[in-house]
Amino acid sequence: MNSGKILVAEYKHMPVLKLVGDVRVLMSSTIDNYFSSLYSKAILEAMIVDLTETTGIDSTALGLLAKMAIQLRNRFNVKPSIISTNPDITKILKGMSFDIIFDIVEEPLDAETNFGELNHVSEPEDVIKQKVIVAHQALMTLSDENKLEFQDLVSALKNS
């Protein structure tokens, strides 16, 4: 059973992605498809990822966030903001070197925003496996510690 939700909204002409609950690999296609829609925009000046209601997040979801931040920097010269008021989540973000690619904000978004939930996207196992590989490769680019942490997983997935 999937206890996480993916919500999206616009706030002051900025896309906002809010991850709620326990965010796991089965949500990767939904997250990745949303990010693909961002990359097709002509102009994107900012992006907010709100993790204030995130109770857990796996390395695949983190890798997709890293991939998105790298893409936004490369395509739009944008450094997205990530909001985390949970000290445990913030510790994970900093431990994964997210402070290099995100502005980490530890205060909640101070505005009422009308979020809509994204529909869950299901894809074949081999497509999800490829997303897991790409997500972990993105994490590996952030630090030597991440590279050591995930290189065996990526090798194993590529060879399976």
List the helices and strands and how they pair.
Blueprint: E1 5-11, E2 14-23, H1 28-39, E3 48-50, E4 54-57, H2 59-76, E5 81-83, H3 87-95, E6 103-105, E7 116-117, H4 125-140, H5 144-159
Parallel strand pairs: 2-3, 2-4, 3-5, 5-6
Antiparallel strand pairs: 1-2, 1-7
Helix pairs in contact: 1-2, 2-4, 4-5
Structure overview:
The mean pLDDT is 93. The chain has one domain: 2-Layer Sandwich (Transcription Regulator spoIIAA). Strands 1, 2, 3, 4, 5, 6 and 7 form a seven-stranded mixed β-sheet that branches. It is built from five helices and seven strands. The protein is globular, with a radius of gyration of 15 Å. Helix 1 (28-39) runs parallel beside helix 2 (59-76), helix 2 crosses helix 4 (125-140) and helix 4 runs antiparallel to helix 5 (144-159). It is of the alpha/beta class.
